[in-house]
Amino acid sequence: MIQEQIQSVQHNIETACKKSGRNPEEVTLIAVSKTKPLSDIEAAIDCGMLEFGENKVQELLDKIEHVSRPVHWHLIGHLQTNKVKYIVDKGLLIHSVDSVKLAKEIQKEAVKKQVHCDILLEVNVAKEETKYGFYYDDVLPAVIEISKLSNVHIQGLMTIAPFVENPEKNRNVFADLHKLLLDIKTRNIDNVNMSVLSMGMTNDYMVAIEEGATMVRVGTGIFGARNYSI
Ligand SMILES: *Cc1c(COP(=O)(O)O)cnc(C)c1O
Q1: Averaged pLDDT of the chain
Q2: Is 219 touching ligand 1 by the criterion CB < 6 Å?
């Protein structure tokens, strides 16, 4: 079942790329395995998946420790400053940096452990009160400040679009984030690499790709519905 789901998502990614004249190799599929058992991750690896996303630090650490083969991990959930020390040296991409304070904490721990850390800035494009992330107009000043941190490297931007029935409704959100990415890119800020645009989930990843996503984060579409009651 996981194999068929992955094939179907990959097929959809190709379709969205074709429609928008993009090369499917520009789009990385991240399998969001939060709440799912290690056996599901192993099944996905058997199908060739190499990128996995988790939203909780403890669950991520457990899975990093127990997975049988080396894969790339992505932290996609809100990160508390007091947990930075546990993950900064794990070589993962942190998608969810939502404050300058958090970036400074990552810098502090990265220097201590003599490592470098790649991050994305999370942007709350639709200004939803329930969501984390920088507001649109605050992103550039934050990028400039964070760019001065020697061991923290901004690779791009991430957003979690609103939950909508019709994914077309999120097209503007994705287009706006892409525009912001390009705006910042043209400024050629030292230590800032605006090459990653992480946007699109099960419900809306095809629209996100049409609007320029380079990473899509798909959970339900690969592993099936999550059960939070257990
Ligand atoms: C859970 C989660 C996803 C995956 O959501 P699905 O709708 O199951 O694809 C993607 N991004 C983030 C930040 C998440 O927390």
Answers
A1: 97
A2: yes
